Amino acid sequence: MRAWEENVRKVIPYVPGEQPKQKDIIKLNTNENPYPPAPGVQKALEQFSALSYDTLRKYPDPSADVLVESLATYYHLEKDQVFVGVGSDDVLAMAFLTFFNSSRPILFPDITYSFYDVWADLFHIPYERQPLDERFRIVKSDYYKKNGGVIFPNPNAPTGVLMELDEIEDIIKHNQDVIVIVDEAYIDFGGTSALPLIEKYDNLLIVQTFSKSRSMAGMRIGYAMGNKTLIKYLNDVKYSFNSYTMNQTVLAAGPAAIEDEAYFQGTRKKIIETRERVKKELRELGFAFEDSMSNFLFVTHEKYMARDIFEALKRSRIYVRYFNHPRIDNHLRISIGTDEEMDCLIKFLKEYLK
User: How many helices (H) and strands (E) does the chain have?
Assistant: First the structure.
């Protein structure tokens, strides 16, 4: 090792799902929405291009006020209860950096979003993974012990399993001396948001994203909601790190996505209906899985190895996600695509599993 390498921060990075360059594929590996953003988003971008091109030479509003105000109005909050960032990954990273500074370990599930341990390692935050039970459910009593903070997704990823609101509140009740973060990237596909609990618990932070249910993964918009003190602390850290996180086009497109409620509900409904149909068809093919309330299914087969199915699908230009990790190395995560895409998947599996 060269001398200067001794002082380099070394981490094992998060590995995102593949983003193939080919056009003629079926992409069911990164939980993107299969439908385009709301029509108003396209209109907003066209108007921006025509009227606001010159503004690109200027810095964007550091407070992202137009986007924050739109979110606050939609969720019936005050503006200073909302924080925005470059996707929920940026928001969560800021939250780790801001709130998880205890000498005690933070707690999160052993099977969950694999960025959590990356951020913990990056920021030198001690952590402990709490094992899910045999049905991939969070064991709430595991979170009763002393800790430096708690984070978990609901529904969880990559399992898709939903925790009911009373169980979430039970975890918060047992952790009122630390920050509890509920990562709700997939909440719009099933279940009830824990957002109302922020009025009851001043240590609760809810994080959501435009990447899934609002079809805007390419725009990178995430946000957190909590009491005003938590949001102030988040902004203090953000302004100490990067004042201009949200670019001009995001500030034009984000509010347009929020305004079109009918489109949002329509695409959400289509994804849920497709998911429920595909559950039935996969069970008939011998796949097993816990009941997903997200826009993906986490499946295993009684006879065929997940890695073999994954590789066969990929050869046929159908991409799903395989995780070579303990406890889940015989599972596939399959994003819900359009009905036509899912029909192609089912057709392939019927042939492969003969």
Answer: 10, 13
